[in-house]
Design goal:
pyruvate-formate lyase- activating enzyme, Arc Repressor Mutant, subunit A, globular, 3-stranded antiparallel sheet, 9-stranded mixed sheet
Length: 374
Amino acid sequence: MLTLYLHIPFCKARCSYCDFYLVTGGKQIDAFFRALSLETLSRSEELRGQTVSAIHFGGGTPSLVPVRYLAGWLDEIASLCNVAPDSEIALEANPEDLSLKAMDELRAAGITRLSIGVQSFTTEKLHALGRAHTALQASRVTAAALRRFESVSVDLICGVPGENRSLWKADLHEALALHPHHLSLYMLSVEPKTILHSKVAKGLVIVPDDDLQASLYEQAQRALSNEGYSQYEVSNFSLPGYHSRYNLATWQREPYLGFGPSAHSFFVSPQRELRTANVSSLARYLAAPADAVSFREELSVEERFTEQVFLTLRINSGLDVDFLRKGNKLGHTLSPIIARFSERGWIEQHEGSLYLTQKGFLFADLIAEEFIFG
């Protein structure tokens, strides 16, 4: 099975916390999709004979794009490979783009899952984040989407400037009242070269400290668990059967193809594993879409092991202790490391495999580093 990702790089404006590749405005949408068709055809050998289980439209803001462009590319993909009848076709969207008509058109075009960038259901946090939609709009759009789509996911952010426990509680209360199939909860990260990073560095904005963010995260874990949501990844919670197929496949290191500027691909064969990335420039992509790859890296045995440890812990699928001992030089010196994390209540061991606890999810990367490097 193969999954596909399409990076649509257009946004109305750049959010202060965003470090993804994008361009503002939509004047080049038509040119982009012409170039995308050329890239897709140039990669027909990578698609031929493959069965696709999931397609993810990310960005950027895919919901800015007229639906006919999305439908046209889906038809092109279907002509080059086998798209499974029950495939998940997901689209990231902003609430302000999702009129009832727009949602009906997306559904008719074959979109089965909406990932709605709500970020908050409170006016205070939406203002702090510079989002264009209102709290009421976020609730109404989510409710309407749930009546139309097989699967609906909602994104929320905690740790926003000015955040407190009551605001986060209000976000969780509204989200759980709507009862979406899936929730992605992100702790705000101040990334280099973002507008937010510049404001924080100048002292213009103060973000909550790590202790408060951790407390908000644990508050969400408890609330969602009580409502039947399973935490299947550090930031992702779903009702049974509603996990993101595309995201889970990438975390499980299954092959995927990425299209569009800055998109990544992962190729797997018995002989080698290869990661590639397209150029992070719309101008360069439009000039040579059939030659968009700007980065290639064949993974060494050590790099494969490192990835396996980090990603297995993120999705908590059970990290085999024997695999861990054989894959690095720590050998039996792992035992005291495992014991230390067990005493802290971060990991549990069952039938030869290690699993993170709810608290352990907060320290997934730190635990992985200890397991690999000691």
